[in-house]
Amino acid sequence: MRTLTVELGERSYPIYIGGGIRQQKDLFDQAIHGKQVMIVTNETIAPLYLDAMVSMLAESYQVATCILPDGEAFKTLETYGQIMTSLLEAKHNRTTTIIALGGGVVGDMAGYAAATYQRGVAFIQVPTTLLSQVDSSVGGKTGVNHPLGKNMIGAFYQPQAVIIDTHTLSTLPVKELSAGMAEVIKYGLICDAAFFDWLEQEIDALMALDNDKISDAIYRSCVAKADVVAQDEREGGIRAILNLGHTFGHAIETHMGYGNWLHGEAVAAGCVLAVDLSWRMGNLTEQDVSRSVALFKAANLPVLPPAEMTLEHFKALMVLDKKVLDGSLRLVLLDSLGDAIVTSDFPMSDFDECIIDALEASEKIPS
Amino acid sequence: MRTLTVELGERSYPIYIGGGIRQQKDLFDQAIHGKQVMIVTNETIAPLYLDAMVSMLAESYQVATCILPDGEAFKTLETYGQIMTSLLEAKHNRTTTIIALGGGVVGDMAGYAAATYQRGVAFIQVPTTLLSQVDSSVGGKTGVNHPLGKNMIGAFYQPQAVIIDTHTLSTLPVKELSAGMAEVIKYGLICDAAFFDWLEQEIDALMALDNDKISDAIYRSCVAKADVVAQDEREGGIRAILNLGHTFGHAIETHMGYGNWLHGEAVAAGCVLAVDLSWRMGNLTEQDVSRSVALFKAANLPVLPPAEMTLEHFKALMVLDKKVLDGSLRLVLLDSLGDAIVTSDFPMSDFDECIIDALEASEKIPS
C-alpha cells in the first residue's frame, strides 16, 4: 500500500492507494470519530461493493446508506437534497461520518452534503473510478451542477481520508478508464515531463490494468495534484493550472449536454486544443503536439471537439467559466511540455484559428 | 458611528453601527473588490430600501437584484436555488459580491449562496431587523431549513463587512422588535450581568427606539457575541452558550410550524425554561428567575411555551437538535445570572417538571 499526505495544515489528510484496501477496516477506524456512518453510493456501485462495506462497518458503527441514481445528470440540488433527507431520517447528528463510495459524481455530492449537513460533518472518500481517484479525491472541491452551468454550486471541503482501492478499476467500463487516463496525462503535461515520458512507455500496460503500474500512475498523479493544491487550497492562483483543457472541455460538455461526453473525454479534446494553441504561440514544438495527440489516442481518447460545435459556441460557453475574471478570458496553456501557465495574454486570432482548424478536422472524420 | 472588529484571523471583519449608514457608499466600497454586485432582499424590504441602494452602488458597480418571498417558510433549498439562478442569469463570476439586505432569513440564505456560489464569493450583510443585527450578523452561520429540521443545511461563512443601519428599525413591526430584544436579553443572561442590569433600566427607552440607546444595545450584543465566536468559530465548545433557550425554542418553532412563532419569541420562552431549570438545580435565586421573566415581559415577549404542546413533544423534538451528541441531551443552562454553562448533567426529573409546570401555567392563560 502506498500512502501520501495532502499537506493543508490542520486540514491535512492521508491518501491510501492499494489493491483490496476498501476491506481494511483499520483505515476507516482511524478516520471515523463518532458512532454514526452514512454511506452514499449509486445504483451501479451499490450491487458491487455496498454490502461488504456495510457488513464490515456495522461491527463498530450505526450504518445507514443512501443510494443515488447514477450519472452526471443527477448531480443536482435535488439529489443533494435527497442525501440531506436520508441523513435526517436516520437521525444523524454532527458527529456522523459520510463515506462517498463511487465515482466523481458521488464524491462531489456526498462531499457537498458533508460540507453543509449541520454546517459540516466528517467525510471519507472511497473513489471507485480512475478519474475520481486521480482528480476529485484530492483538492476538496465538492458541489453540484446547475442547469445554467457545471459545478456552479459547491464548497471547498477536505475529507478525513481518501481510500483508493485499485481493484475497483476491474469493474470500470473501459470508456471510463480512458476518461480517467485523460487526467493522468494532464498531470504530465502541466508539471511533470518525466511522468509524461513514463506514460508514453507504459500506456499499454496501464490500459491493461497492470496493478503495480496503475498504482504508480495514481500515486504520481495524486502527488502532482496535492503539490499544487497545497500551494493554493482555495484556487486563487497556481491551482488553476489543474484546469488545463477544462475551460474548452466544459464548453464541450455543456454544449453536448451533461453525460453525453464523459468529463475525461472532453478534457482530452480540451487539452489538445490548449496544446495546439500553445504551439501556435511558439511555446511548443510540432513534435510536442504530435506526442500529446498520440498519447491521448493510445488511451482511446478523442483528440478533436465534436464537429457539430462552432467557434461561437465555444466563445459563448467559455465566458461563463469560473476562470473568467470580470469578462476577460483566461486560459491554462503550456509554456513548455511539463510546465503550465495561466494567461489571458494570447492572440484572439490564434484562439479562433485553433478552434476553427480543430472543428474542420473533426468534420472530416467519418462519424 | 460605532465600529467593532470580529477577530477571526484572516477572516476578521468590521461591524459598523449607526443611523443612516446604509447610505454611506465608502463603507461598501471598502468591502467590494470586483465589479459585480448582487443585492439579495425580500418583497417586504425591497420597496423600502432597495432602489436607494441600487442607485448608490450603480455609480461604481454592475448591480443585479434578487427579490425573494418574505418569511421563514421560504428559507428552503428551493429559494436558495433561485438565488443561484439569479446569479447565473446575470452571468456573475467568482469576483461578485453578494449583499444581504433584510432580516435573518435573507442573511442566512444570501450568506449560504455566497458560501457556495462557485465555491465561495464575497458577502456583505446589511441586516434590517433587530434580531439579525444582534444575532445572525455575527458568527458566520448561514443556511436553510429542511422539512425535517431547522437550519440543518448550511455552512460557516464570514462576511467582508456588516453594516447595521439603526434607522431601518423604524419600519420594523413592533412584534419583530420584541423578537430581537429576546436575543439582546439573552446576552445579558449568558455573559454580562452588568448589561442585564442596564437593560432592566433602559428597556422602555429601547422599545421606544431611542437611537443612542438602541445603538449601544446592538454594540454590546455584537461585542458579546463576537467575543464568544472568536473563541470558537466552528461551534466546537463555548459557542454553544449562545444557544441559551434555543434548544427549547427550536422545539416550539418546529412544533408550531415555522413562522407561527417568531424565532425570538420562541427563544424568549426557551430562555425562561432554561432559567427555570437552572433555578431548580440550585444555580439561581427565585429573584433571578422573576427578574428574567419581568424583563422578557417588559419587551412584550412570551415567557411560557404554547399550551397545546406536551412534555413528549419537547423530548421528541429536542433529540434532533444539533447539540445532541450521540443521543444524550445537552442544554445551555445558567451557573449564575451572567454566566452560562453547557451540560448534559441535569436531573431528568427537573427537566420534566420544569416543562410540565410551564405548560400548566400556559394552559391557565386565556388565549
UniProtKB/TrEMBL annotation, chains A, B:
Its EC number is 4.2.3.4. It is found in: Cytoplasm. Zn(2+) binds at residues 183, 246, 263. GO terms for molecular function: 3-dehydroquinate synthase activity; metal ion binding; nucleotide binding. Pfam families: DHQ_synthase (PF01761), DHQS_C (PF24621). Residues 180-324 form the 3-dehydroquinate synthase C-terminal domain. It catalyses: 7-phospho-2-dehydro-3-deoxy-D-arabino-heptonate = 3-dehydroquinate + phosphate. Pathway: Metabolic intermediate biosynthesis; chorismate biosynthesis; chorismate from D-erythrose 4-phosphate and phosphoenolpyruvate: step 2/7. SUPFAM superfamilies: Dehydroquinate synthase-like. Keywords: Amino-acid biosynthesis, Aromatic amino acid biosynthesis, Cobalt, Cytoplasm, Lyase, Metal-binding, NAD, Nucleotide-binding, Zinc. Binds 1 divalent metal cation per subunit. Can use either Co(2+) or Zn(2+). Its cofactor is NAD(+); Co(2+); Zn(2+). One of its GO terms (biological process) is amino acid biosynthetic process. Residues 66-178 form the 3-dehydroquinate synthase N-terminal domain. Catalyzes the conversion of 3-deoxy-D-arabino-heptulosonate 7-phosphate (DAHP) to dehydroquinate (DHQ). This is 3-dehydroquinate synthase. It comes from Marinomonas pollencensis.
